[in-house]
Specification:
This protein is an alpha+beta fold and 198 residues long. The protein folds into two domains: 2-73, Glutaredoxin, CATH 3.40.30; 85-191, Glutathione S-transferase Yfyf (Class Pi), Chain A, domain 2 (Up-down Bundle), CATH 1.20.1050.10. Helix content is 53%, strand content 7%. The chain is built from eight helices and four strands; from the N terminus they run βαβαββαααααα. The protein has a four-stranded mixed β-sheet with strand order 2-1-3-4. A hairpin with a 5-residue loop joins strand 3 (53-55) and strand 4. Helix 1 packs parallel to helix 3 and helix 4 packs antiparallel against helix 5 (118-140). The longest helix is centred in the middle third of the chain and has 25 residues, at 88-112. The radius of gyration is 17 Å and the shape is globular. It binds glutathione. Residues 9, 11, 35-36, 49-52, 64-65, 99, 106 line the site of glutathione.
Length: 198
């Protein structure tokens, strides 16, 4: 398998964490990719020019990160991250919430790097508010362990906030979430996928 990859992407991190948790890390070749430069090889795998994108052994192109993670859950023999039965939809909703936090935080980071006008300032404030609402929901019911895709996604979203928005600490206002993240911080799926120093 080939994974179009960027070490700073929280969505790529989620896929890498799944690869580790599923025992599949050795089966993937990482292709370092600047998605914003729209290289042809990435476009052939994902016309949206986003990472992560996965090419399977059969040459099938798979994106985006929730689909790649679900694909990985179907190969290998480790415990599944996508539960069956009644636990499935809650795990998917938590993944959607965490992915939405990442979308908002990534969009805010991109917007903040551009010349600021009233529209961009309003856009960034809207993304920030979405993150704050998402954190409040997660604080009410933090994940447990790293047992499912929702938990993995939340860890990656919080890691991205620490990586890109360290000047806006979230732990004090979300102590249960902070305690949960500390409890999984030494998992290889977390330590070995940490983003580079900002
Ligand atoms: N929904 C996508 C989001 C992926 C995404 O936004 N990736 C960013 C990097 S963090 C990207 O490739 N951006 C390039 C671009 O928007 O042109 C997923 O879950 O994989």
């Amino acid at each position: 398998m080939k994974l179009f990859y960027s070490p700073s992407s929280p969505f790529v991190r989620k896929v890498m964490a799944c690869l580790i948790l599923r025992g599949l890390e050795g089966q993937v070749e990482l292709v370092s990719t600047n998605a914003h430069a729209s290289p042809g090889a990435l476009l052939a795998a994902n016309p949206l020019s986003k990472v992560p994108a996965l090419l399977t052994e059969d040459g099938a192109a798979i994106y985006d990160s929730p689909v790649i993670c679900e694909y990985l859950d179907g190969i290998g023999s480790a415990a599944p991250l996508f539960p069956a039965g009644p636990a499935r939809i809650p795990a998917l909703v938590t993944q959607a919430l965490a992915d939405g936090l990442m979308d908002a935080a990534v969009a805010r980071r991109m917007s903040d790097q551009l010349p600021q006008d009233e529209g961009r300032i309003a856009f960034s404030a809207r993304q920030k508010a979405a993150v704050e609402r998402g954190l409040a929901v997660l604080e009410q019911a933090p994940p447990q362990g790293l047992a499912d895709i929702g938990a993995v996604a939340v860890a990656c979203a919080l890691g991205y906030l620490d990586f890109r928005f360290a000047q806006e600490p979230w732990r004090e206002a979300h102590p249960k979430l902070a305690a949960w993240l500390a409890s999984v911080a030494e998992s290889p799926a977390i330590t070995r996928t940490a983003p580079p120093a900002a």
